[in-house]
Structures are given as C-alpha cells and as structure tokens.
Write a structure and sequence with these properties.
mainly beta; 55% strand
C-alpha cells in the first residue's frame, strides 16, 4: 500500500519583532516538523499570490493535514534537498497545500 503522506518537512517560522515598553524586542525563530507529500510543478502556468499580493510562479506543492502557521516563510525537505520560500499556504476542508 502506498503511503499518502510519505515526506517529512520542516517549516521555518519567524515572528515579527515588536516594541514593548518603548524598547524593541526581537522576534523569535522556530521550526516545526510536518508530514505530507511533495509534488514538483514543471509548468510555467501555475501562478499564486503571495502575502504582498504579487503573483509568483510556483515550482512545487506540499500537501499536508497540518493547519497553516502564522509567520511560516520557508519549507525544507531534506530527503529531496529542497529549501524554498513559501509563496502561500492554502487551507481546504481536510488538507492544506503549501506552494513553494
């Protein structure tokens, strides 16, 4: 039987800094491990809007059941040697898709 979510990926998260009592407090960086399936996209016709509203050509999609994480900016899959910036993370009823 084929495993539906055979890959393990690491999502790099960076929280924005903020001003507390008149002083700047640096944001935190963390990593979260998630399970899913990665598919490359070898087409020049798949465009997605990033957080700034700019259309970006995507080169891969990571399918997972994990909910979107605020501040996630990079997806790393060591088994494939992939480290790419996250374009968008879309939520559907039973799964989510991370476009890179």
């Amino acid at each position: 039987m084929v495993k539906r979510y055979p890959h393990t990926a690491i999502v790099l998260i960076e929280m924005q800094g903020e001003i507390v009592d008149g002083e700047y407090v640096r944001g935190e960086k963390s990593e979260t491990e998630i399970k899913g399936r990665f598919d490359s996209i070898n087409s020049d016709s798949v465009l997605k809007r990033n957080a700034e509203g700019i259309e970006v050509l995507v080169r891969g999609a990571f399918y997972t059941k994990h909910k979107p994480i605020a501040g996630a900016h990079t997806l790393k899959i060591e088994s494939y040697g992939i480290k790419r910036k996250i374009v968008c993370w879309e939520q559907y009823q039973v799964h989510t898709i991370i476009y890179v």
